[in-house]
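Minutes, methods subgroup
Present: GH (chair), OT, SY

1. OT presented the first of two proteins processed in the latest run. Sequence and structure tokens recorded below as shown on screen.
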Amino acid sequence: MIKIDRPKKVPAVLRNEGVTETARNVQKVRADLGAYRSGAKKLEFDREIYGHASVKRVMIRAQRGKCAFCESEFRVVSFGDMEHFRPKGGFRRRSRGALQRPGYYWLAYAWENILASCEICNRRFKRNHFPLEKGSCRVRGPAGDCSKERALLIDPAAEDPDRFLAWHEHRVVARKGDRRARVTLRVLGLNRKTLRAARARLLE
């Protein structure tokens, strides 16, 4: 996992269309919160906004062409996904836990919540998983302050992963057994067999 310096300038599509869509979704949820929490109603998100070429281009450049999580040069084998650090549609506290709705829907077009990742990290491993430390209060709406959440996943664009993770040959390990590092490694599959093999070849 690499430290990402996300550019401060927000892409125009997020400042314009993104802000408009966010306001619409907030209004929908406020009008019928129970239906959205039960799953009777589901929000639709416009991939053409958060996944717009201008957004993707800037993030790929900021990440030096690498997946925000596993550091693979994902463009060699795929176009990559625009991943939401805090899941937009719904979240799971545990990988096999129940999906809680709605997710962090007001952050679907938020610049600070968007990363570029490979499809394997996004679709197979992280998906909707977003655990918090025990006792941490989860923010459930735009009025809350997400900075007060004690997330167990490391955000590479908000903190330096080197504080938590270290290398041991071709494996990534938690520094001093740090719990957030251990959870991040497990949830993102950062020691999966294919990654270990690729690192071993590089070391050789």
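2. SY then presented the second protein from the same run.
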Amino acid sequence: MRRYLLASLAWFYLTQATWFGTTLGPSIAFRILRSSGAVCVPSAIGSDPLSSRAAGAGLHADGLGDPAGPPMVCTGAKGEYWRGGHDVSGHAFMMVHCSLFLVELVYPLLPALFPGLFSGGARAKVQRIHPAVKAVGYAAVGAVVLCWWMLLMTSLFFHSPLEKATGTAFGIVGWYLSGL
């Protein structure tokens, strides 16, 4: 339970810390995004041209880093988006983070699940396992395969190589630190 709690906290502080107000402060990914120069750009479609937000310049601060700028949270709900900066790939983080945990859990079952892939010593140690445990093991292996497929698709179509690398690094570090 300790590992899952620590892994969940790593995810929470990297991506979601702002959900519970300003008490915890912004998430790590948000801090990286803002400190690397990202600005929130309002959508021309989602903005009301008569509102006070649309009355200024084209680029608006979100209010946290620029007290003089109009308060605008860049959630994407009204079409606004981040421009510039370094956006840590949350997809790469989640796929690596989750798949490492699943692989670690299912690793002892692999010789029983796939006996043809293992040679003598590992195959000889295989004991009979309950069919329900086997089904859960196959489901976990399927989830790992799906995670790696989604990581491949993220690598091909989203984020820059550096953003994917930092997302992957955060996933590995979160998995490693929760195992200490």
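Chair's summary of item 2: The beta strands are 39-41, 81-83.
Next meeting: continue with the remaining queue.
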